[in-house]
Please model this.
Amino acid sequence: MDYHEDRFEDASLMVYDDDILVACIPGNRVGDQFYSHQGLTYGGVFMKLETSKKLMNAILTEVIFYLKVHYLTVEIRWQPVIYNHHHMETIKQFEFLDFITFQALNNLYVDLRTEYNISSKKTSGYRNGKFDNLRLVVNNEFRIFWNDILKPQLKARHQSSPVHTVAEMELLSSRFPNHIKQFLIYERNELLAGVTFFIKGAIVKSQYAAATIDGMKKSALDFLYIEASKDFKDHDYHFIDYGHVNDSDGTINRGLQRFKEELGAINQPVYRSKWSKI
Model:
């Protein structure tokens, strides 16, 4: 997290059992408010998989009382269950100690261990020749994707910019070269589309996706996601996390939801919880 530490006042917590680290909670503070974590996709309490229920409850109780003593408000966006099997028990413990679960985002993922169903609409390019001249390239060359596709498309369609700058992506990639992969689609020498994937254990997270106008016409992102799914499945990854489909006001973006469902994705809620002393 230190690459963007200048944007946040760190308030992360570490929990010890005697001298052994048993849990951590990435967090930042804004005045008397605690967030886990505004600079991360997901937050919450991180523990070892083999943590016993007794120790887990002790950890959560200590964390909750610490937060309630030191802050006026606390807000947490939890991880999806595919990342953390303690997920639902953790939320129940927080609810038992006065936290309110106030939002459930529609987060979609593909289980690569199953026979997931990709819509015939997505695969039609293999049959009608639309995909014939497309080729997939996997590398860590972020700059061309950022400058030629991602930034222009976000600005034109959403009047926004990527959360990460290309310099930050290059820095992260240099530190974690096996955990960030840039997938690009070319037709001959023309770049049509790209998706940036973050890898955590057996889970692949789709982070940034964009295509040129020509790439949209040729369904280049469909081709990319289908080929990427095959590749990740062949390399024994378990899940592709496609992220949530909610707009900033919480409503569901039905078009985005349909796009991901046609790739074989199913819904798993991502919950947000809060507590306030006020």
